[in-house]
Amino acid sequence: MKVNLLFAFFGLFLFVSCQKQHNFSIEILDDEALDLIDSNSEIKVIGSGFEWTEGPLWIDSGNYLLFSDIPNNSVFKIDETGDLTTYLKPSGYLGEAFGGKEPGSNGLLLSPEGSLILMQHGERRVAKMKASLDSPNPDYEAVVDNYQGKRFNSPNDGVFDSQGNLYFTDPPYGLPQQMEDPNKELEFQGVYCLKTSGELILVDQLTRPNGIALSPDESKLFVAVSDPENAVWYQYDLVATGMVKDKRIFYDTTPLIGQEGQKGLPDGMKMHSNGYLFATGPGGVWIFNISGKAIARIHTGQATANCAFTTDEKTLFMTADDYLLKVSLK
Fold first, then answer.
1. What number of other Cβ atoms are within 10 A of residue 45's Cβ?
2. Residues 109-115: contacts with CB under 8 Å, at least 24 apart
3. Which of 78, 90, 117, 200 is paired with 56 by a 20 to 30 Å CA distance?
4. What would the pLDDT profile of 114-130 be if each residue is shown by its tens digit?
5. For residues 133 and 137, what is the distance between their CA atoms, to the nearest angstrom?
6. Would residue 246 be called left, alpha or beta, if left means φ above 0 and alpha means ψ between -120 and 50 degrees?
7. pLDDT tens, 197-240?
């Protein structure tokens, strides 16, 4: 089904006008970043007119991108020609009415078997689409939906390790009244690991756990905290599956919150194969080296929720408020 949305492609005029309107720019903080991105790389608008975009996922087998629009309870698909279609609806809440603002899916992942995994806010679970990627259908089955018999808040984002264990976060954003929701069953917000054996491990409790990533060698776990009082990324040492030690702040952006041009909080992130963390946060996307040094910033002018690479890591997609953006990498 075609979607009648304001849609933008790759013309120079459009890029210039959007750059002027949104103040797109790339700031190189350390020459190390020049191995990844040029300061004059174009940040392009490839879609707009959504409500709140999230969960970008590149599907290499079909050369297309999937992404969530959480308030619209939908997953959209955009292919390499710029053709935009509705891929799944509903995506995160299967009922007739939802009292909150975020019923849809958030993070999207591919399982090791190639199935689409969705962090379903409205259904408060991690779910799998039963159909194949090339024949999508909004028919889902739960992967996991509770911790010790209590329903999750609203699973947000996740990452699989090389063995198929799933690490994911569970903040309150999908609950209609969030922390004050009368149907909230857990007294905390958790970071979890669902092992291939089916065992669910509570990795840590954080105020607002959000984006999550693993280092390339899977020795370190990174978790974003989208709490304006503690707007940080944490780093943990992974000593065994789901078991961590030496929790520490990887980077702290709390002093930037509320400043002009610094919209957004630590949110979704992706790990580059060379060990660079691309993390959405105040002002756009931050690029860190593995030591926690910020080496570049991609300024979007929007509250930026998440990002994703193509398989060859030559393109970075960004979900930024009601926009879908992309920028070329080296």
1. 23
2. 109/57, 109/158, 109/159, 109/160, 109/166, 110/57, 110/59, 111/160, 111/164, 112/160, 112/164
3. 200
4. 999 999 999 999 999 99
5. 9
6. left
7. 999 999 999 999 999 999 999 999 999 999 999 999 999 999 99
Alpha helices in the chain (DSSP H): 12-22
Q: Are 34 and 310 in contact (CB under 8 A)?
A: no
**Amino acid identity, position 111:** S
Q: How long, in residues, is the chain? A: 330
Torsion angle defined by CA atoms of residues 3, 118, 228 and 327, in that order, rounded to the nearest 10 degrees = -50
pTM of the model: 0.93
- CB neighbourhood size of 193 (10 A): 22
Q: Nearest-5° angle of CA 320, CA 178, CA 233?
A: 50
Q: How far apart are CA 166 and CA 281, in angstroms?
A: 23
Is pLDDT above 60 for 4? no
172 touches 153 (CB < 8 A): yes
Angle at 17 between CA 27 and CA 318, to 5 degrees: 50
Torsion angle (degrees, nearest 10) of CA 141, 134, 110, 175: -50
The DSSP symbol for 16 reads H
The contacts of residue 277 (CB under 8 Å, 6+ apart) are: 213, 222, 233, 269, 270, 271, 286, 287, 288, 289, 290
| Tokens read off for 96 | 């007739």
Q: Where do we find the tokens 């998440």? A: 306
